[in-house]
Fold:
Amino acid sequence: MKIKNLILFFFLQIIVFLPLNIFATINKTAQASNKTNQASRISLPDAFYQDLYKDSPLFSMVCEDINSFWILGQKFLWNYRLDRKDLTKFDLGLHKKDYKFYQTKLHFAQGFVLFSLENGLLQFATQENKSLHLYGNKTKAKDLKYSKVFFSSKQEVFWLLNQRLFQVILKNKEVKFLQKLSFPSEIDDILYVNENSSLWYIKENKLYKKTLSSISSEPIFIASLSPGRKSLSYYENNIIVESPHSLLIVDFTGRIEKTISVLGGKKLLSQNFNPSVHSFIFTDNVVELFHLKKAESYFFSLRGSSFTRVNSFFHKDNRLAFIGDGQIYFYETSL
Structure:
């Protein structure tokens, strides 16, 4: 199949799962662009690369705003200001014996950076005072199976610690126990959605949903999934199941909105959804930006770069940022 046909097919796949309110703005005659542009890499000063390299492989990154990026390394937390080309290192004591990572994914909410340690949830204030707070737990490291953070639309996050669910009020540094949950011990990923009090998890390549407010607490089988890396995320009342070969879009009720296949022999490395653009990065080092209002896809080559793993993928305006194979990358596009 020719590349133009591949692009058009992928575009038609994507358009099906757009939120309903988007369809009013779509030009029905719009077609995906078949032109691949060159993205320009934003270089950091050599001294910054050297500092970050010493703390590599980098684990993850979050964006506070379009110019401020928080980066988690092996021992330190870093803040890079893209507008000022300023790199600041924060020693949070992560190299100490009692500070062992459980999960190395950074989260950002309400002016705080959060991530999980074996002995609790660490909260770092990114504003003037740069204060540090540890929500401790009494679970022994050998018994710790899950420590994961989920976001809410309110001034709070939810923390799953093994099978106990907590509400964390960030501003007041309060932790409230909500309930004990029941789900299998061996799972690939899990997601709690506060908006409809539901729990979603992947076990043995199958997706399940459990409604916590229902009288019947039995999980409901949703779909069978292909083998390989899989992750769950939440976006605008939809559950997103990401794998190297497809994206599965499921609504709150458990109805499958769409399965979007990755074509052309390549694999999906990461994706980023925001209200105006859906972004995808593939193993052929091409980024696709699907603009919702225009109903068009634009493609950008990251020429000269090669990645096997990508995380913390961020796109806003004309900037791209991500962690590729443990190193940080910034790019600019022409759109």
Q: What stands out?
A: The helical segments are 3-16, 46-54.
